[in-house]
Queue: 3 jobs
Job 1
Amino acid sequence: MQEFTMRFFANYRDAVGQKTVVREYEGVTTVGDVLDRLDDEYEDLELFDEDGSLRDYVTIMRDGRAVTHVDGLETTLEGGEVLSVFPPVAGG
């Protein structure tokens, strides 16, 4: 079993009902694996498009680094990482 801490922001925090969630998963090796399980657990997260790809506006960070700068959903995990899930940010 591997333990992960997930932090959620803005509307994703509302969907989960809290800012931080700690989960143990077996057989998880990538960021995509964790997100699939979270998406199954919390139906209001809506992280993926209908074709199964991560929505364009979702930002996922592993230990403070955007996974788009690593290997995207294929970014490997060993356990103990903190994954942060951010919605789009708008400003003016």
Job 2
Amino acid sequence: MFFASDNWAGAHSKIAERLLAESGGFASAYGTSDLDKRVEAKFAELFEREVSVFFVATGTAANSLSLASVQKPGGISFCHAEAHVAEDECGAPDFFGGARLATVEGALGKIDPKALATKVARFPQDAIHHGRAAAVTITQATEVGTVYSLAEIDAIAAISKANGLPLHMDGARFANALVALDASPAEMTWKRGVDILSFGGTKNGCWCAEAIVFFNPEQAKEMHFIRKRAAQLFSKSRFIAAQFDGYFEDGLWLDLARHSNRMADRLRAGIERTPDARLAWPTASNEVFAVISKSAAKSAEDKGAKFYEWPIPEARPDLVGENEALIRLVTSFATTEEDVAGFLACLA
């Protein structure tokens, strides 16, 4: 019963098989192989337009280098107060590109458009002492399991464009959000005004595969140098390409995300039926947040369940009682119905 993180899951067998098939022979290095080029073309097909694609190893690298590519002296990038770039990347956006982060509030992990407009206004382009607005980044799906609707992305993009700011999307769980919305990759990104995407594969069945996608290749001219300087240009990048090749084949990536979302749906439904447990807030992706008794949490852990106790949101101090715990449960492509049933049995 592994619900600590989708990072705990292994790699899907079809992706492992694709890596093994590529392991022999010779191919040109540093992203110039036929396989690299074929997978880059596949990204263009998925997104229904010409794109520039840069393979990297981690989501932290993808986010940090994306923001570095649009940075300027004194630049400020705006993100949600609970965003991964602000809370869980050890200052990497600042380190790689000088991207000072300004956090913006918003309910359920999503930037509030009015709060964003107010915060951006504090950093005009001539604010030489305070710094100037440079970019906006949103997380899809969010750190608390919610998903921006297409209309909500439109609203954030409108403010970004009105201020001349590029919009970046942290898509570590891109596929989970996509299937939750039943949208196409194009509809959830550039058609909404997203300029740059951190496209994640690792959490959804890959070994180690992330990509930075520019929807306007003209914006990507400096990324070749930025990626090399950051030690993210792999000589044998065909092994990242091979993972994406297997990931995309026959829509595997979407099938894996649908499965993990379905397992999360089962968890949500089961928790709602349990008298001594409740959902902390509604979620739509593969993350579930629940309030359960401390005794139930200990019982589940004693029976082998793995999950994280989650910090109580500052805006909801009354969410959790004295003898209760707020926990996060994350499903993956490897989660089984038996895992879900076993965890729910612990609560009962």
Job 3
Amino acid sequence: MPITCCIRYTIDPYQRDAFAEYARNWLAIIPACGGDLIGYFLPHEGTNNIALALISFPSLAAYEAYRARLKTDEAGAANFAFARRARFILSEERTFLEPVLASQ
């Protein structure tokens, strides 16, 4: 069963540009590690400290394999280190979603 990982970030709104750089870095890293990146989304209007990422996988097992590859990826490790140093991510939550399909 396909799944989509929705990552909800609480970010420092004064470091929006740093988060945007972090998100742009993932645009190449995530597909290279096996994720189908739907996209990263920055706050535009209204709440100014919530950002989202949506990444799909054919199965939960595929997600687990992706996470294992991500942990050994040099570019991924560098991007995680950038976020830790700059401290623009205040918290993050992961929710796993399944698609609603038409009845058969």
